[in-house]
Amino acid sequence: MQTINIHEAKTHLSRLVEMAASGEPFIIAKAGKPMVKVVALDAPDKSSIRRIGFMEGEINVPDDFDRMGHEEIQKLFGGAE
């Protein structure tokens, strides 16, 4: 993510706003210290992105999933069945 100093941000505000609106967020810094992050309003908030369970109903997990390949694994590691 690009960091812009506050003077440059004031000078090129229109260009930077267009950049953020097109999906390229940036940080405005003052004396090298990050102050604000500029993002598009329609950009998804990280907390609103749902990851767990996003494929619910798309895949089927077999009932014996935790035992699949058990015999082969036992043979590979020298265990007796």
User: Tell me, what's the shape?
Assistant: elongated
Q: Classify the secondary structure makeup into a structural class.
A: alpha+beta
By CATH, the topology of the domain at 2-42 is YefM-like fold
Mean pLDDT: 86
Low-confidence stretches: none
What is the H/E order? EHHEEH
Q: Roughly what fraction of the amino acids lie in strands?
A: 15-25%
Rg for CA atoms: 25 Å
> Which CATH C-level class of the domain at 2-42 is it?
Alpha Beta
Can you describe this structure?
Helix content is 27%, strand content 19%. It has 81 residues and is an alpha+beta fold. The protein has a domain at 2-42: YefM-like domain (YefM-like fold, 3-Layer(aba) Sandwich).
TL;DR of this structure?
This protein has 3 helices and 3 strands.
Which terms summarize this structure?
single chain; three-stranded mixed β-sheet; YefM-like fold; 81 residues; alpha+beta
Mind sketching the topology for me?
Elements: E1 2-5, H1 6-11, H2 13-21, E2 26-30, E3 33-38, H3 70-76
Parallel strand pairs: 1-2
Antiparallel strand pairs: 2-3
